[in-house]
Design a protein that fits this description.
The complex is a heterodimer of chains A (234) and B (308). Chain A is α/β, with parallel strands linked by helices and 234 residues long. Chain A has a domain at 2-88 and 156-230: Rossmann fold, CATH 3.40.50. Chain A contains 10 helices and 10 strands. Chain A has a 6-stranded mixed beta sheet, with helices on both faces. In chain A, strand 4 and strand 5 form a beta hairpin. Chain A is globular. By secondary structure, chain B is mainly α. Chain B has a single domain (4-297), classed as ABC transporter involved in vitamin B12 uptake, BtuC (Orthogonal Bundle). Chain B is 69% helix and 3% strand. Classes of the chains: A alpha/beta (234), B mainly alpha (308). Chain A binds chain B through residues 48-50, 69-71, 74-75, 79-82, 86-91, 95, 98-100, 102-103, 106-107, 147, 151, and chain B through 180, 183, 186-187, 189-190, 193-194, 196-205, 305, 308.
Amino acid sequence: MLVLENVRSGYGQVEVLKGVSFEIKKGEYAAIIGANGHGKTTILRTASGLLRPSSGKVKFDGEDITGMPAYKVAEKGLIHIPEGARLFPQMTVQENLVAGAFAKSSWRNKAKNLARVYQLFPNIAERKNQLALTLSGGERQTVAIARGLMAENVKLLMIDEPSAGLAPILIDEVYEKIGEIRKTGVGVLVVEQSPKRIADCDCIYLIENGEVRMQGSAKEVLESKEVMQAYLGS
Amino acid sequence: MVETALLLPPLLSAIILGSLYALMAMGLTLIYSTIRILNFAHGAFFMAGAYIVWWLNTPESATRLFGTMIPVSGLQLPLFVAVIPAVIIIFGAGVVTQKALILPLIRKPNTLITTLVATLALATILESVATVIFGGGRFSYAQELVVGNVRLGELIVTYVEIIQFAVAIGVLLALYLFLKKSRIGIGMRAVAQDLDAASLCGINTQTVYLLTFGIGAALAALAGFLLTNIIFLSPSVGATPLTIAFIVVVFGGIGSVPGTVIASYVVALVQQYVTLLLDPSWGLSFAFILMIAVLIIRPRGLFGFKET
């Protein structure tokens, strides 16, 4: 579904990704882990078109999307939910959701998709007329995920650090929602700093210094000495 | 001591004038809050819109006039018809400006200054073009938009003033609904509040920029048409409205839509009462002094909020 082939990317002169390759299959639940500053977010930003790779290829659903502008990538059904939710602070919850349906094909069905999203996340339905800036951290994260789901034909949801800054009980809630989304057949790729809570992933990639250091099933990766080293130092 | 009866007419003028200021300033606010640039060509769009209406409306025959390069249209469209193509043409000019002038500068460093200088240059060029075509003289529309007035007790309100007020408020309300409900309007607000998040929602930010600049310019053209019914037209006619619009925008809190509306009425009130109590020439200066005083206490203006 999402394929990166030897992708190099970064900011200006600073190269963050030094040849990243991986493939996430249709409907798969994958995770990217690694310490801060090693390129996890840059992978998502390059895949979603916010950054243009300096070399390498990005393919989605069989199509080459390398260098495609972000709005077109989103229209293809590859949805990136940035770190910190990044809601539109001066817009209500419902307006935020509606903004997620901006693409013409999504706009036509926005009423239907609003109903679907509110059904999936009843707690934000109660807050639909509240300004986004008044929401708690957990609510913000939920609205950000819901906004991503307002796009018609979402195929893969890439969520950057859904647990950042949240209390443990709220993190559980967010991951419960992710579980519910997976049941609808949408693939999910989460980026996490910590290896907790991703034990049920189909596949985990450990990123180190802009490269894929290790990949494999959740069990293989989480119990490996590489992960031990990355997180505990040795 | 000024009699109470004398205090009412300026209040009425301030309400009418304030609505026109809001219409003018809203274009600047939209462009700043969405594209993050200060458009110094806003006054030139005001002027150009007013000239296009004059050109389509003037009863002069298609012979040379005022040493013009191009003949007058001879179309003699009624003013309220002529305003429609004028606003559309300036909308298009705004789109072209964004595409050809702003876009090449906006992804490079120092955008605020480079675009400021570029729009200032555009304003100067448009003024020169107007001077070459129409000459430097002052003229006004050949006829009044509507003739007549109504009396409200002691107050006299002309039909022109009523139309100015109604059109300004009507357009501002339509703009509010557009920003609140329409697909493009929601896209504009999203781009204004978080550019990256907006792109990730599938919003084509370049298209939003083009439309925003077009709408902003069109609002200036409409304000130019409305005001030219009561002031003289000349190539530099946009300078004062531009200054007022900047006072209003900064005073209200740069980028804030409600701040722009409220500050428009405050500035108009100050101007009108200073004119009554002191002297007309002091009106604008006092509006400036008030703005500076407010900025010392609230550097972001009345309704400004921190940028994230």
